[in-house]
Amino acid sequence: MNRLLPLLAALVACSGPPPVEPTPAPPTPPVVDASNLQRGPAELPAGPPKTLLPGITALAQGRHIGAITSYAVSADGKLLATGAWDGTVRLWEAGSGELLHVLPDSMTEDIEGIAFSPDGTAVAAVSRNSNGGVWDVATGERKFELRLHEDSCESVVWSPDGTLLATGAWDGTVRLWDAATGAKALVIEDAHTEGIFALAFSPAGTHIASGAQEGTTKLWDIGTGVLSREFPPHDASVYSIAFSPDGTRLATGSRDGSARIHLIETGERTGEYLLGEHVLAVAFSDDGELLLAAGWDGRGKLWDTVAGGLLTHGSGWQLHPVGGALRVAFPEIR
Length: 334
Description:
Blueprint: E1 10-12, H1 34-39, E2 50-52, H2 54-60, E3 68-73, E4 79-84, E5 89-93, E6 99-102, E7 111-116, E8 122-127, E9 131-136, E10 142-147, E11 153-158, E12 164-169, E13 174-178, E14 184-188, E15 196-201, E16 207-212, E17 217-221, E18 227-231, E19 238-243, E20 249-254, E21 258-263, E22 269-274, E23 279-284, E24 290-295, E25 300-304, E26 310-311, E27 318-322, E28 325-329
Antiparallel strand pairs: 1-2, 3-4, 4-5, 5-6, 7-8, 8-9, 9-10, 11-12, 12-13, 13-14, 15-16, 16-17, 17-18, 19-20, 20-21, 21-22, 23-24, 24-25, 25-26, 27-28
């Protein structure tokens, strides 16, 4: 796995309409004040703010018109994808920073979510006007375009085997799509009463978890669309979800400043960890014993989910996405 340091994101928050910028910025990446990025805005927007690695911000900010709203890293760490208020998706070579493609016919409004396929050969993006698309990574050509939802689409993830795409939106529905053709595979109507900000497939690919603005997290059978489990709600919006590697537990991160772990089988809460900041990302270690929660301030905390203690040491954190979810390995902590 490619070592991505620093691991934790420096926040680029996105709220309000994009500024009018008739002339593109020069192609030379600007100098980025990381401390300013980590402070964030005075208030969060209605939807979840987006996070970016500082290096990605510096790389892409001078190439997009308007604020960068989303990013994705390929599973092998070799490729980056960035989306912005300008409605474009751009692919980059991570090692050199070379711009590989400006994906054609991206969107007409700002990009709200990006995800690489598990094998890294395709990238999906969704936008505020609820359009979506899938592009071939090697050629940059668009495979197909989708009209996804009736309202702004906030999240997109791939199934672990790469055959399905799932999207969530402000209309409260979860929708599944055939990743090869774009055909609609399943619609879960009224999954939530408010916007869906987080989605994650189970490691086996049989279920999908969804988290929403009203603070609820639910688990759905993708074969039937039937609700399998509803977990005790957070006090505020759920911004992030992650399954443990063995699929027995679910971690959630919320605007209320907490990360929680529940057993899938019973719904029982087995841990609650307070970050002190809105929790924008949660990730299990490869052995499932550690949980990393990243906050609005661009920093994070690491907990031992077995002993329950907060860990303040360790280095060599490595991040990689699997099926749209974030995984993290900690080779030097023990």
